Known about the structure:
alpha+beta; Nuclear Transport Factor 2, Chain: A; seven-stranded mixed β-sheet
Amino acid sequence: MxxxxxxxYNALLLALLQYGSxxxxxxxxxRTCLEGLMSAYLAALTEHDPSRLNTTSxxxxxxxxxxxxxxxxxxxxxxxxxxYRHDFSDPEARQVxxxxxxxENGVRIIYIARLGLNEDxxxxxxxxxxxRDPGGGARYENMTAPExxxxxxxxxxxxxxxxxxxxxxxKYYTGMQGNDPHGDxxxxxxxxxxxxxALQTTNQKSxxxxxxxxxxxFASLGCEAQFQTGFxxxxxxxxxxxFPVVDEERQAVLAFATLDHNxxxxxxxxxxxxxxxxxxxxxxxxxxxxxxxxxxxxxxLYRIEMTLTEVPYGxxxxxxxxxxxxxxxxxxxxxxxxxxxxxxxxxxxxxxLQAMLTHDPATLPLAKDARYTENGQLIAVGDGLxxxxxxxxxxxxxxxxxxxxxxxRTQTAVYWGMSTEQTTPGVLAMRIRVxxxxxxxxxxxxxxxxxxxxxxxxxxxxxxxxxxxxxxxxLGELDTVFKExxxxxxxxxxxxxxxxxxxxxxxxxxxxxxxxxxxxNGQQLxxxxxxxxxxxxxxxxxxxxxxxxxxxxxxxxxxxxQGVALAVAMVDSPAVSSSPLLLTLxxxxxxxxxxxxxxxxxxxxxxxxxxxxxxFGYRSAWGSNLDA
Length: 628
Ligand SMILES: *[C@@H]1O[C@H](CO)[C@@H](O)[C@H](O)[C@H]1NC(C)=O
Ligand SMILES: *[C@@H]1O[C@H](CO)[C@@H](O)[C@H](O)[C@H]1NC(C)=O
Ligand SMILES: *[C@@H]1O[C@H](CO)[C@@H](O)[C@H](O)[C@H]1NC(C)=O
Ligand SMILES: *[C@@H]1O[C@H](CO)[C@@H](O)[C@H](O)[C@H]1NC(C)=O
Ligand SMILES: *[C@@H]1O[C@H](CO)[C@@H](O)[C@H](O)[C@H]1NC(C)=O
Ligand SMILES: *[C@@H]1O[C@H](CO)[C@@H](O)[C@H](O)[C@H]1NC(C)=O
Ligand SMILES: *[C@@H]1O[C@H](CO)[C@@H](O)[C@H](O)[C@H]1NC(C)=O
Ligand SMILES: *[C@@H]1O[C@H](CO)[C@@H](O)[C@H](O)[C@H]1NC(C)=O
Ligand SMILES: *[C@@H]1O[C@H](CO)[C@@H](O)[C@H](O)[C@H]1NC(C)=O
Ligand SMILES: *[C@@H]1O[C@H](CO)[C@@H](O)[C@H](O)[C@H]1NC(C)=O
């Protein structure tokens, strides 16, 4: 039914084409020069001054896969550089990378940077990964330097070629993807060891459980024996594999890859006689971005140094063109009426939810090239929630927290209700657009409860706590005003004024009904809508008063007959302040905020909003349809 979105062979080929072919001219910038550039980069970063760097005018700057203007994001909050510096130099490809630590608003974290130079020695690519793991930062600082074997120049007759270095390294990803216990893992050196966030996770005698699991045996094994258990099979795809920095002299490679965990693998294979359930962290589709360094001995993987951070599921790498495999429905699927009326649109919501629950999108009248996004990320129809959704509250049934709305003029229907994926609850917002009797767009936003449970539940060290967390407790009945309210015009300008107010921290110019109430992540503060927008209450708007732009504003539906609008926006929180910040405010963040509005007589009378954490600078694949 589906073909892989990204083939490892293509990735390898691309890598060889890009980085593997020998360049005849003598390198202009050698190891000393490249390491000097990295030092200059880190100094400029921690002193918040990008003008000190020699960059091209169109330099591509990324943080955790988000494209940002150079000088924003971490550039505003980075503090002192740490002692630990592990550099990788590739004069031939004009690339330098480092694994190091910095402080971010005073907290020491792991920082990976890669600089790419053009022919003239100007920086034209800056890729960074920020792994917000203070434990890892502290461990690196305690290590002070990489193990000596990483930094040795390997005698020329003991080296393998650039192409071989990349090919051997790629076997690691091929082996981990869908981790087959019967695979050939002889590409590991028998004495191979791996660090994860500066913690040794092979041949470890501590007896600590591995990752999010309870398993205490896995980390006691060596690299090869670990892969032979098949334990890592929950990594369902490893795409956007890149090997940009090949340090031939040291026989080392600094690689980057995107690890998808689509949530379909439900048990961990037995490691010591007993299989165990998959940790709740993997209840939902997850994507992790990995920066991973490999040191080879002969042609085997001898040392691995990895760091991870989480990005929204399906997140595309800014450095790789990735093709989506589009699902088209079987020819025998009946189309919707050419013009789908309100009743038809409400029906469409149920039909799509049912198809998600049965994990069978092929039964739907999908348009050719139907677009599907999850939390702003374009993914294949059939991926993500289509595989993990196990329950949903249906509009019109006995379920209390669910509603659907329709706008026949734009052939749009939306849903707002509760989802369950395996054991993880969420609030699900969905927009469906019908065109000529086919489903053209399906857009879902799922705000999952992530804060509770054993070993941190599904919450990770990869995102900071929110000002207002939703712990998954029942949200009660969706206020009947949404379901039984009277007609009212729901002009886009009304919602846009509201977003302006959210951005300005001011209710001036926003039409609120006097009795308007608002709830964020299920919590109702005893403060009216206007006062909240003015910044009053403990966590105004479920956020705080250091947020700046409210962008990628989108009105998903305006259902005038029911006087309801659904909208979503990205709210930036650069974490810049002259005074010390609470834990919830320290990290540059973007909050994705789907909001359901009840409008009465042209004024906002009720707001039901959710707040979802996203990496700073996150953009929706849909852009915006309201003016910021
Ligand atoms: C930028 O380029 C100039 C001229 O080549 C050089 O003098 C300077 O050291 C460079 N600065 C950095 C930070 O590399
Ligand atoms: C610091 O490093 C030493 C070895 O150099 C080790 O024994 C100790 O456990 C480390 N401490 C921490 C907190 O990681
Ligand atoms: C494996 O399981 C056995 C029996 O349950 C136990 O005695 C042994 O300690 C376990 N091994 C490890 C490495 O935990
Ligand atoms: C891990 O152990 C805890 C405590 O015994 C248990 O509650 C939890 O369900 C276990 N988790 C998994 C994934 O096995
Ligand atoms: C529609 O066609 C597909 C493939 O041609 C087939 O598998 C499926 O059973 C058909 N469905 C119906 C309802 O006839
Ligand atoms: C899938 O659809 C998108 C637009 O919806 C299009 O850009 C892309 O090329 C299609 N992919 C394939 C493999 O046809
Ligand atoms: C999810 O992963 C499973 C196991 O690897 C695989 O069979 C399935 O095709 C994947 N789903 C998608 C949509 O790629
Ligand atoms: C789905 O949720 C409904 C109501 O919330 C509940 O009655 C039903 O038992 C659930 N079904 C499953 C399979 O969990
Ligand atoms: C709010 O922000 C908008 C756009 O940024 C601006 O045009 C407007 O004047 C501001 N309103 C107030 C009351 O500050
Ligand atoms: C933000 O809120 C804090 C705490 O309520 C307050 O002390 C501070 O003055 C506010 N800052 C702004 C810019 O409104």
